Amino acid sequence: MLLDGRLRTEVWYPARFGSQEGRDRRVYDVRDELPLEERLKIPNDANPWMPCDCFADLPIDDRHGPYPLLVFLHGTASFRMQNLVHATLWASRGFVVAAADYPGLMLADVLYLQGSADLPADTRRLLGLLRDPQGDLSFLAGVVDSSRIGMAGHSAGGMALEGFGGDPGVRVLVPMAAEGAAPGAALESVLVIGAMDDKVVPYARQVSGYESSPAKKRLIGLSNAGHLAPTDLCALRNSQGQDLVQVAKEYQITNASLAELLWDGCAPGQLDPERGAAIVGAATTAVFEEALQCRPAGTFLSKIRDAFPEVGEYREEL
Fold this sequence. Notes:
The protein is 27% helix and 20% strand. By secondary structure, the protein is an alpha/beta fold. The strands form two sheets. A nine-stranded mixed beta sheet has the order 1-2-6-5-7-8-9-10-11, sandwiched between helices. A two-stranded antiparallel sheet has the order 3-4. Helix 6 links the parallel strand 9 and strand 10 (217-222). The chain is globular and about 50 Å long. 48% of the residues are buried. The mean pLDDT is 94.
């Protein structure tokens, strides 16, 4: 849906039990993030499709809730489904999850060297629409609790989160491959997720962001992992095993080499994408449930290295 004439937005949510029967799971087409003339260059059999463990347009489960709200901010040269595995996981755990394509930061914007982004302003616009859902969002009326909000963002999206702890209802901030968070009136918890071999935002900057963040705070450092490790992007491949950048270069997508500059963390031998997704999913769900659903998370997180040896560093200040 297009909100406020500007923000192409996706919402994942707990659906009414059984309403998916007889329906096909949603499949996203990454080519939709490109201008038409670029989209047509990539044939169907070479396209890296994004299957989703979700269904379109199911009735929301309004017999339960109201549900806490989670907002995800994508990184540079990316799109709203960048962390699709996590969005659907969070929705399955009783959250309403919203993510928008951010003008000026989207894949097509970067490839075409056009536009400028204002993520904090656009995100506050999105939050305002979600707090008072009307029009295309009217199905959320009465089932979203805007006093319980969590936010996660990757790279530039994670950087943009810094000051949101001062916004009404924002209790949890999760910057990934970014830095930290400033103190805020509602802010209760910060989780910094970093890749220890990040060549785009060096891990030392991420540690510094953690150290400057207010408690309660936690840091997870992913070993043998680069910038894209906290996302789904490294796992996104076509039937020939080509990743997004390889497909873009083969089919001569304009300025594909610019996206390649950010393609860090997907090399053979680095952190397996499925393991990275499992770590990020478990850790983020734990902190969101702790602050927004009053479920204990401390014991699991303090021992996360036992469950996931790929976590090279864990710190907490509670």
